[in-house]
């Protein structure tokens, strides 16, 4: 997460330098075209590194992967698997990967194991409640389409304007 935030800050600093460094009058369209790769880079960094997360709720475990959200009741978790990433085995729904918890050298196996231990503790103490079942949601909302669309729009507008001008 620290590397992703640092990468985003670096992209923004580079973009500010590009925007402020252009002293040619009337070059705002060219600067707009240069902005599009930065927007796309910020979006991809956010989507891959900052968006996946897990959180513990009172009755359910929330898994926010790249393109799906899961709300998993603790009592329905039958097993935890995976050597390099955490995978939940959920009764009636099969295996669910947890993208935010891999055992990569930068994220660490210790974090993955700590979350697994907490999940096991909560699963053992869980009591089924009505209305708190398993949920799966798609993440095709505003943040997912805003980054690529804004980047493409800036690129096309800047490109067409530079050809016409």
Describe the structure.
This protein is an alpha+beta fold. It is built from 4 helices and 7 strands, in the order ααββββββαβα. The model has no long low-confidence stretch (mean pLDDT 75). It is elongated and about 65 Å long. 13% of the residues are buried. The strands form 2 sheets. The chain has a 4-stranded antiparallel β-sheet, with no helix packed on it. Strands 4-5-6 form a 3-stranded antiparallel β-sheet, with helices on one face. 50% of the residues lie in helices and 24% in strands. Helix 1 runs antiparallel to helix 2 (28-50) and helix 2 packs antiparallel against helix 4 (142-164).
Name its key features:
single chain, 165 residues, alpha+beta, 4-stranded antiparallel β-sheet, 3-stranded antiparallel β-sheet, 4 helices, 24% strand, elongated
Give a short summary of the structure:
With 165 residues, this protein is an alpha+beta fold.
Strand content: 15-25%
Number of strands: 7
- Major sheet: 4 strands, antiparallel
Shape assignment? elongated
Strand order of the largest sheet: 1-2-3-7
Structure classification: alpha+beta
- The number of helices is 4
Helix content: 40-55%
Span between termini:
42 Å
Rounded mean pLDDT is: 75
Radius of gyration computed on alpha carbons:
21 Å
Give the helices and strands as they follow along the chain: HHEEEEEEHEH
Low-confidence stretches: none
